[in-house]
């Protein structure tokens, strides 16, 4: 009678990175390419719209979306919101990019949006805010074991209108166009502007007073990420409350 012992069943790491499997072929998102662009700055099939907001011309670059992906808001909705935010808070940001995330990014680095402090592409140099196309038909799955910050984020997502279902295995976050719009327009956009306010007051403005720009940048980059996130969250919440009072 043959032995029922199977050594591969005794090692839970067989076929995983811990056992060295596929260690030289990991799925990664390159940060920069040979043309020195960050991966989120690689925009292909797009159109450009220019709008005047408070006498300032703002450029909106809109990349064509893939099947099942969409932008959850219009440029009109975006510009109307920007008009309600103190202009001095986002003065200097003259480019907003609506982009289609690439396949690897969707798997490894999914985001609602991001701030590029020093974008340099398509003839523009300066800070820019990127907002991602969303697949509202695909749920987000998180593990049950969450950090304190992840728990706070989950609560924010629920407040945005996403349906959260938790079972023994994981947490599933179901997205709709409206809930995604709430997250991107009224939280992510404000959050990224909050990061810019922090950058502006810590780096750009002091640099105008003949302080060393390189040292200021280094000092800003040394600030713990959690401190930066806390600043941006507080800013977003403060502005959202002001906007709600206006509307």
Could you characterize what this model shows?
By secondary structure, the chain is α/β, with parallel strands linked by helices. 39% of the residues lie in helices and 21% in strands. It has helices at residues 75-84, 87-90, 103-108, 148-160, 177-208, 213-221, 225-246; strands at 46-53, 56-63, 95-99, 113-121, 124-132, 140-143, 163-166, 170-174. Helix 5 crosses helix 7. Mean pLDDT is 83; it is low at 1-34.
Radius of gyration: 21 Å
How much is the average pLDDT? 83
The domain tally reads 2
Low-confidence stretches: 1-34
Which range best describes the helical content: under 10%, 10-25%, 25-40%, 40-55%, 55-70% or over 70%? 25-40%
- From the N-terminal CA to the C-terminal CA, the straight-line distance is 78 Å
* Beta content: 15-25%
Tell me the number of helical segments per DSSP (H or I, 4 or more residues long): 7
Could you give the order of the helices and strands?
EEHHEHEEEHEEHHH
Q: What is the total tally of β strands?
A: 8
SS class: alpha/beta
Q: What general outline do the C-alpha atoms trace?
A: globular
Main sheet characteristics:
5 strands, mixed
Q: Largest beta sheet: what is the strand line-up?
A: 1-2-3-5-4
